[in-house]
Amino acid sequence: MWVHLHFGPTVTLPGGFGSTAVLLRLGTFLMIGGTSGPTSEPHLTTGKEHHVLTNHGSLSVSFYGDPEKPALVTYPDVALNHMSCFQGLFLCPEVASLLLYNFCIYHISPPGHELSAVPVSSDVPVLSVDQLADQVADVLDFFGLDSVMCLGVTAGAYILTLLALKYSKRVVGLILVSPLCKAPSRKEWICNKLMSNFLYFYGMCDLIKEWLIQRYFGEEVCGTSQDPESDIVQACSRLLDGRRNANIWWFLQSINERHDLTEALKELQCRMLIFVGENSPFRSDALNMTTKLDRENSVLVEVKKCGSLVTEEQPRAMLSPMEYFLAGFNLYRPNELSCSPRSPLSPSCISPELLSPESMGVKLKPIKTRTSLESIDF
């Protein structure tokens, strides 16, 4: 496994970029804004699913960790939720210790994508991508989060990028996996429309599952007539059987009408770490995205022999780049002698030699700039 990294200089930002807990009544929907809101519960319950009624409908949010820590907001791809999109990443002990030690994790599911979701009513209009981004901002308001780090995959990466463009002061960093940034090509638009029709009339049939699997994974794990599918592909296929067809259709319609963010990317003020699989159908979007970004504040990581869903297919490849990236925010993975008493996971005992870039198959390609670290003032 080889990973190619393109780095700008490391930048130090003030630590603790904002996370204030608010009260939430479990098992109910609460309106944000105005005078409505939670009033009686003494604390948020970690590891629980919370339903927040935003200005554009309800969203499921599951959070893990200490709400006094900085916030990491995640958003998955089409037909996935945080369990099927980020489980592989958080099951990697080193990555889990890095993220859970430094962050309180807020997993946002697209409307109707959470476990045991009810079908979206046919009377509910399809939201625009701007409204989906506004939903996330409403969730931040509800939980009292002034500024956050974001982690999104493909369609989720697009929504979080749009969030950073619309609410620039609230997003301090973006970690994007196989992101979208352009409007759909004619080929993609037609394909999405055809798949939407199949989904609407026939449900989660084999054709739809095969299309989604190819969207997520590279050929290395998808299998052939001679080689069976890998365990992660089989598990994902089983999870897709439990999805609500109408809800997937609803979200796919929104993403298929997305607008081009390419020119607006120059306005992004946050630092960005972008992963893309070599075999991802959205690889060109990710490469195009990096050409529009400030090279001093953006990093591209291309993962060899991998599809779009790097978080599940090769999560360990994300460790070293994320460590370098988060170090710019004064956030580090704990060593075995200094673990956080509030972290649900302790770091695994790993020999320091095994964490070197060479031993993990990582090639670093620094970008030469004239700007010194001392001259950068945030």
UniProtKB/TrEMBL annotation:
Taxonomy, superkingdom: Eukaryota
Gene3D superfamilies: alpha/beta hydrolase (3.40.50.1820)
Family annotation (InterPro entries): AB_hydrolase_fold, NDRG
One Pfam family here: Ndr
Family recorded in the similarity comment: Belongs to the NDRG family.
Protein name stated in the entry: Ndr family
